[in-house]
Design goal:
mainly alpha; Growth Hormone, Chain: A; about 0% strand
Length: about 475
């Protein structure tokens, strides 16, 4: 391996570490979620926002962060994301009440723009023959960080204290910030221009409205004034966002590019596949932790449940290089179709094998294998159909669509499970089986949508044109 490949590999390792560190925050508080009302001196409903606000800010920031990367340079945005994660983690670590905790968790969610911007940066800083492998590896960290985070967080909370969870996150983020500054090439890839503040505000209002309404619909009531006002108000804001963006010379999101058939269909597939990924993250832990006395529960502790699910994250990472070879051999489109098919097959396995922890481990591993194969193909399809100067924004929108899928999945799974409480006060076995079937259907819908994506061939940038700049920017 020559020096340029070695330096590029080191950069990819840093970006993967960053992706896992950022994704870890998504599951960081799940082991202590039931204790949060007492820890923060608040109600159960208010404590739920400690999880929700991170998902909301992540969804809003990913397309905005991608656009900022296109304007001012992707290395600057990923450095800022890492620094924001440090600040947010410290704020949470020092918090003992709800408001500062929500501020810190919101900042942690904002750091999620690190992942899509890193994926967009890879095309510029690694040799063409490494691009697919690098994109696959960084894409996989989104799931790996979440999967590993569950048992790790449970162990830290049980062994030390709940504040230690956030000190751990702060230390990881501080190491990441230093690594990004010293090991990631600080290429000057910003295109310049102005920030579309009006578009950012409308997008934020629209996304928050819709996602809050969807995520809180069961709790508030699907026909309650609050739910309807939130969803409808969000949709109105998104329509206004679209009309506003079409009139801008430098829009936050170029809707004309987003409306191109390859990009549009890939983003729709991202919603379906994001739905499929999230379903098992909600249903499997519940099945594992239900008491055995229910007849279908498996009686595992939070830590044990996390350990049963942790191998799924490792499987996801193991399949990243396989995804890379598939993209090189058969193309990103067929790779995404295969990944979504494996994802759906995993849910069918879970439908028939849910009587023991090891059976759910197998099903979860199959699901995660599908995610590992397919997740890398989505940004590759987007990058193949998007101008380089809009790569960050386009990948950010794709990441947003996956977040929309996961949010809708959470709402649907909660509604199914909560709507079938039996005499013992827990969801019935039939409800869990229905959740697995719905997850399978979502994944196979993703296969069908991807099949409609037209073939796209993007000429790789001439490596010689950027080699001189990279040699200057990369550390010796």
């Amino acid at each position: 391996m020559d020096s340029r490949h070695s330096r590029a590999l080191l950069t990819v390792v840093v970006l993967c570490f960053g992706g896992m560190s950022v994704a870890l925050t998504q599951t960081l508080v799940i082991p202590i979620q039931g204790e949060l009302p007492g820890l923060l001196g608040t109600s159960v409903a208010n404590a739920g926002w400690v999880v929700t606000i991170t998902l909301l800010t992540a969804a809003v920031v990913m397309p905005i962060g991608g656009r900022l990367g296109d304007l001012f340079g992707k290395p600057r945005v990923i450095t800022a994301s890492a620094a924001i994660l440090v600040i947010g983690s410290i704020v949470c670590a020092l918090s003992d009440s709800l408001v500062p905790m929500l501020i810190g968790r919101g900042l942690q969610g904002m750091a999620m723009s690190f992942i899509p911007v890193s994926i967009a940066l890879i095309r510029e800083i690694v040799p063409a023959d490494m691009a697919n492998s690098a994109i696959a590896a960084v894409s996989a960290t989104l799931g790996v960080g979440g999967a590993i985070g569950l048992p790790l967080s449970a162990w830290v909370a049980q062994t030390f204290s709940w504040h230690a969870l956030f000190w751990m996150s702060a230390i990881l983020a501080a190491v990441l910030t230093i690594a990004v500054l010293t090991l990631v090439p600080q290429v000057h890839d910003g295109q310049g221009g102005r920030v579309d503040v009006g578009g950012a505000v409308l997008l934020a209002v629209g996304l928050v409205g819709v996602l809050v309404g969807v995520s809180k619909g069961y709790e508030w009531g699907w026909t309650s004034p609050g739910t309807l006002a939130s969803i409808l108000g969000g949709l109105v804001a998104l329509v206004l966002f679209g009309l506003f963006e079409l009139r801008q010379s430098e829009p936050l999101v170029d809707l004309r590019v987003t409306a191109r058939r390859p990009v549009l269909l890939t983003n729709l597939a991202a919603v379906a596949i994001g739905f499929g990924m999230m379903a098992q993250s909600i249903v499997v832990p519940q099945l594992l932790e239900l008491p055995k006395a229910t007849g279908h529960g498996l009686g595992q502790s939070v830590l044990e449940a996390g350990l049963w699910m942790a191998p799924g994250g490792l499987v996801m990472m193991a399949f990243a290089p396989i995804s890379s070879k598939l993209m090189t051999g058969v193309g990103a489109k067929r790779t995404l179709m295969l990944g979504a098919s494996v994802l759906g097959a995993g849910y069918l396995v879970a439908f028939f094998l849910m009587n023991a922890p090891w059976q759910l481990l197998i099903a979860s591993a199959v699901v995660c294998a599908g995610v590992g194969i397919g997740y890398a193909a989505m940004p590759t399809l987007i990058l193949n159909s998007t101008p380089e100067h809009e790569a960050g924004s386009a990948v950010g929108v794709n990441a947003l669509m996956r977040s929309v899928g996961t949010t809708v999945a959470a709402a649907v799974m909660v509604s199914i499970l909560s709507g079938s409480i039996n005499a013992m006060g827990v969801p019935s076995r039939d409800a869990y089986e229905l959740c697995f079937l719905v997850g399978a259907v979502a994944a196979f819908v993703g296969v069908a949508i991807t099949a409609l994506v037209p073939q796209s061939r993007r000429k790789d940038a001439d490596a010689d044109a950027v080699e001189g700049e990279l040699d200057e920017a990369l550390p010796a």
